[in-house]
Amino acid sequence: MMPPTATATAVFLSAAPPSFSTRRRRSRLPAISASLSPSSSSSSSEEPLLVRAARGEDGLPRPPAWMMRQAGRYMAEYQALAKRHPSFRERSENTDLIVEITLQPWRAFAPDGVILFSDILTPLPAIGVPFDISDSKGPVIQSPVRSEEQVRELVPIDLDMLQFVGESLKILRNEIDGKAALLGFVGAPWTIATYVVEGGMTNTYTNIKSMCHTAPDVLSGLLSHLAQAISDYIIYQVNSGAQCIQIFDSWGGQLPPHVWEQWSKPYIKQIVSRIKKECPHVPLVLYINGNGGLLERMKDTGVNVIGLDWTVDMADGRRRLGNGISVQGNVDPAFLFSPLPVLTDEIHRVVKAAGPKGHILNLGHGVLQKTPEEAVAHFFDVTRSLRYETLFQGSVAEELQPVA
Ligand code: CP3
């Protein structure tokens, strides 16, 4: 593919039809610089609020916010684009489309984090595992990897095959221009392996779970290969402009905690220690869906931020993790279907429970299909209006007590 130029992207963007969200962009963007200005006098003010919160810096004016799955199908503008480009593989592997889709929520809602539109499975062909996405079945891997021979056939990640990711990140970093953090992401080895071994989505995980006992060497060979490839891929994303990386171990919560300790954590730890060595400035977020039984174990991976799903009470999560690590989350995505004042109260409740330091506001999992765009806009408007000094007036010392 020809590397897109800034002009090509600008032309592409201006060709987008005027929509509800593009109209809203004009009124929202000035608010971003206004909201960032309270922090601009401090020492690391060049860094986006989200990166500073991920590192647990003191003295931020408010928590930064973004949403998992913030770019995608709940947006009318995205649906119109998806009609013109019906293949998800095309939408997620063409630089112009990736950039456009990633910027749609940024223009409409001005979140503090902008996550690349991509998928955790996108790097698979670059390690020798072809896949497809079916509308009805989701991801499909024609030849699930279950034998020693298949593991041997995997190749080191060919980053040339993922140039659209690097190109997109470079363009996005330029477009966002420091007004928000650019987030890259990867799947954790265990979660990617669930697709590679099962051949697609599953409710039971029986093939991969039984492999832990019937073919442990094959599974550990696969996970080690993935850990190496994912580390290389993170470094590539960072070198291309990503300022923070989220590791999605979305299906880690399907394992009993002691099995997660053996089959997911060591491979995440390998990734974390490599990134901490080679890109020490880049904070890492670890998200697991269904992580109530795993919080303390997640902390042991060495990541900077623990993502909480919405079934964990934020105050309990904070008590269990202490204040030495940042947390992310965890408004139930279903609150975006409730009356807006209810959503406002829930945001306030979560922010107060998380405390005035080291919190990235997010949902407890991705934005749901059919979520009203007004509610997403409201979520970010409320966040911009928050001030820790008002929320924690007189109670800061008490709220900051580490309990864990
Ligand atoms: O918005 C849309 O039209 C959906 C586009 C789409 C994505 N992934 C977006 C995505 C499609 C068709 C896929 C394929 C896919 N990959 C599926 C089935 C469909 C779906 O939307 O879920 C599934 C289950 C996967 C696997 C997957 N991808 C997981 C487990 C994760 C981690 C996030 C999570 O939900 O736990 C992803 C990441 C992902 N898929 C992102 C996007 C835009 C990036 C993360 C983000 O934006 O927060």
TrEMBL record:
What cellular component GO annotations does this protein have?
chloroplast
Cited PROSITE patterns: UROD_1 (PS00906), UROD_2 (PS00907)
Enzyme Commission code(s) on record: 4.1.1.37
| One GO-annotated biological process of the protein | chlorophyll biosynthetic process
**Start-end of Low complexity biased regions:** 29-49
Keywords (A to Z) from UniProt: Chlorophyll biosynthesis, Decarboxylase, Lyase, Porphyrin biosynthesis
Q: In which pathway does it act?
A: Porphyrin-containing compound metabolism; protoporphyrin-IX biosynthesis; coproporphyrinogen-III from 5-aminolevulinate: step 4/4
Instruction: Tell me the superkingdom of the source.
Output: Eukaryota
Enzyme group, top EC level?
lyase
Q: Region (Disordered) spans which residues?
A: 19-49
Under the heading PANTHER family, the entry gives: METHYLTETRAHYDROFOLATE:HOMOCYSTEINE METHYLTRANSFERASE RELATED, UROPORPHYRINOGEN DECARBOXYLASE 1, CHLOROPLASTIC
Q: Which family does it belong to?
A: Belongs to the uroporphyrinogen decarboxylase family.
Q: What is this protein called?
A: Uroporphyrinogen decarboxylase
Q: Which organism is it from?
A: Miscanthus lutarioriparius
